[in-house]
Amino acid sequence: MADFKKIAKIFEDRIEHVDYYETRAHLRAKNELLDILEGETKQLIFLIGEPGCGKSIFLYNLPKFLDSYHIIRFNTPFFEPVDFIKNLITRTGAQVHNYSLEELISQAVELYKDTDTIVAIDEAQLLSKEMVELLRILADSKAFWFIMAMHKHESAKILQEPQFSSRPHRIIEIGRLEMDEAREYMAKELLKAGAYGLEQEFSKKRAKQIYGLTKGNFRDTKKLLNRMFLLMDAALKLGKEEYTKPISCLVTMAAIDGGLLDS
């Protein structure tokens, strides 16, 4: 019998200490990004997509396919302009020379202008207006590449701001899993976990049911699978063998437990 609790951990909603699964949407985004980096001047790049599409995972794994670039990643955008610039300066090993924002910007630009540095900011829709203006100034200096990940529905408003609409920038969108890809993802992860044979129990019908509930959202797909295998583990311990297979009612229970369906 498979170790359902161990399998459930594979589908936990986290970005660290997990194997990166490159979806087709991620592959397209990666290729778009590489084309921009290789063929254009330094500028702002907006990475957009619905919540749960895998923007954070994509940013976390940038060093894996951009090994010739220096990646500086910020997971949360809650900082003030002066603190942000000081952070960039001290990351080079240099000391902050003064505390005037204008002079700090000049120092940072001088330190980074001859480097291939990408500053990646997650949840960028939460940036303050002051920070947005600072990033515009830094982007205009051509000393940095910026990748700003944000929710698709909130990006439209930000991109209409004059400081972005009137300046060079690129938009890369990460989409949803496709139906056959979702099934392939489940099977590959189960095989990777050594659950041989279990992947065959995810028939087209069952995969279609899961896809219908998650609508191809990567995070929701993982959430449902995580809850389902935890329920299967609980059923095994209680001797409820009929619930140790991915049957329809178990999928529904996992969706309810994960908040994807109302009870």
Describe the structure.
This protein has 263 residues and is an alpha/beta fold. It has two domains: 91 residues; 150 residues, 3-Layer(aba) Sandwich (Rossmann fold), CATH 3.40.50.300. The chain has 13 helices and five strands. A five-stranded parallel β-sheet has the order 2-3-4-1-5. Strand 3, helix 7 and strand 4 form a beta-alpha-beta unit. The radius of gyration is 22 Å and the shape is elongated. The two termini are 30 Å apart.
Give a quick set of tags describing it.
263 residues; alpha/beta; Rossmann fold; 2 domains; 5-stranded parallel sheet; 13 helices; 51% helix; 11% strand
Helix content: 40-55%
Q: Looking at the structure, what is the overall shape?
A: elongated
Mean pLDDT: 90
The tally of domains stands at 2
Question: Low-confidence runs (pLDDT<50, min 5 residues)?
Answer: none
Q: Looking at this structure, what is the CATH superfamily of the largest domain?
A: P-loop containing nucleotide triphosphate hydrolases
Class by helix and strand content? alpha/beta
**CATH 2nd-level architecture of the largest domain:** 3-Layer(aba) Sandwich
Give me the Rg, rounded. Answer: 22 Å
Please specify the SSE layout and strand pairing:
Blueprint: H1 4-10, H2 24-39, E1 44-49, H3 55-60, H4 62-65, E2 70-74, H5 81-90, H6 101-112, E3 117-121, H7 129-140, E4 145-151, H8 152-159, H9 162-165, E5 169-173, H10 179-192, H11 204-214, H12 218-237, H13 248-257
Parallel strand pairs: 1-4, 1-5, 2-3, 3-4
Helix pairs in contact: 1-12, 5-6, 11-12, 12-13
